[in-house]
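INFO batch 0412 | record 1 of 1 | parsing
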Amino acid sequence: MAGAAVPGSVSTGVRAMFLMLTPNESSFQTVEDVPQYVQQATPVFIGLMVLELVVGVLKTGAPVVTLSDGVTSISAGMISRLPLWVFRQLIVGSYLKKTKQE
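INFO prediction complete | emitting tokens
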């Protein structure tokens, strides 16, 4: 589209992470034109986790984020991708089964 944002820019990554993209930035002619938003937002997500850790250390003198909190955040992100992976596996499995029957 004409008003699409520059893929990979920091502002696009931040706004994609918080679902704040404009309709012009999130509308595309074909599926191949759709950027990989997860890959763009991942560095921003990790950067915010590091920023939280640094601010906590500067403010209290000790880390306020526990290891379990960090692992939980990363695990939640991974689990949110699990349904897509399972669905893709079902599609591929169905296709392979159908082609073997023919």
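INFO post-check: The chain has a mean pLDDT of 80.
INFO record closed
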